[in-house]
Task: structure prediction
Amino acid sequence: MITKYRPVLEVVVLALVAFLLQQLFFYATDKTAIANSFIYSIPFLYLFFLGCSLIILLILIKMKEKNIDSVGQTFLLLTSIKMVLAYVLLHPILQSTDKLLTTEKINFFTIFAVFLAIETVVTIRILNKKQ
Result:
């Protein structure tokens, strides 16, 4: 039972490590004032993408039990849905003309890419563990 949900624990731990590293970066470079002016706070973005990742992984774990051959297609579908949700979230940032939002755009895409990489690696590991 524990090994079944190990990918979920891995994602939570990796997300926490990424969050702490990013917070340390903003603190070390004295960009906390810029981070505080973001439309979406860094913790909010991490929670949003962590929630999406956990939902995706739980669905993939269930799909693995039913039909492992559909896991890859399900991953692509769910990742596409997550991308649409991320775009909806990103839209106000893209529409703004404020110069300081360049940092927020980079931050948003960095967090998106980190979670996409984590999900992809975990999905590959799920696919490689055929029963």
The first helix runs from residue 6 to 28. The two ends are 14 Å apart (CA to CA). The mean pLDDT is 87. The chain is about 80% helix and 0% strand.
